[in-house]
């Protein structure tokens, strides 16, 4: 039996593993359904993305073992995570998807694609990005080949000279616009709100600079109602704006929480979010949640994920007698 099972080898899961290792806790396992750590970061963060400790215009101070101040590159982030894994000898079971978690007496039974495991405590640290949120209107089959939810394939194809619409109002949307514009495409950003409030200031400044240089277009308060193929273009219709005709659409709408999985775990909900008690503990004693899943609709950041691991470590110490966080 494992002392602690961590679900997910992203920022929150790795940080949780490091907190436990530094405190001297043994018999810890991390389950990761992909074949690499930080799978969502690798899949959805474009090359050249900056990782910022500022979240919604507020600096997030480091409280735990992992963290940084200011801006680091994506390469620096992966180097930091590789060191965290190797230096602390984290036990990660890759290609192992957790399907259900059930508490029987005082033991958690964890059903995975690689068999059933047992643990005294569980930390849910899987992200939401594995299932990108899709628009609520239908996307016709004819349009689908030119619709993306990240830009990695577009980067690999090294596309240039296309009319591209990016839909979204967060940091990833801004970074997609910047990257696609730098590749030589005609890029527009559509966001349904009248004001952008989800981006950090650096990404807002970069968008404004591109607007000033007339390299991109930005349409705020534009709620898309439908998309359809129109000749060799995609016709994008809006509630309060003239139609737009583009070659490709990139949606950056955030991630959808794996609600079915969490419901199977028996977690208590408040509206659409999982009810969390002190230090990220769910309604089930000994089952904790950190990272994007814990942030819910508020959204999250890598620094908040790191700090969430320290908070769980403090909870394990105070309530269950684990060693104090280092």
Specify Rg, calculated over alpha carbons: 21 Å
**Largest sheet report:** 7 strands, mixed
- Count structural domains: 2
Cα distance spanning the termini = 25 Å
CATH topology of the largest domain: FAD/NAD(P)-binding domain
Element-level helix/strand string: EHEHEEEEHEEEEEHEHEHEEEEEHEEEHH
> What would you say the CATH architecture of the largest domain is?
3-Layer(bba) Sandwich
- Which spans have pLDDT < 50 for at least 5 consecutive residues? none
Q: What top-tier CATH class of the largest domain fits best?
A: Alpha Beta
What would a concise description of this structure say?
The chain has 326 residues and is an alpha/beta fold. Helix content is 28%, strand content 28%.
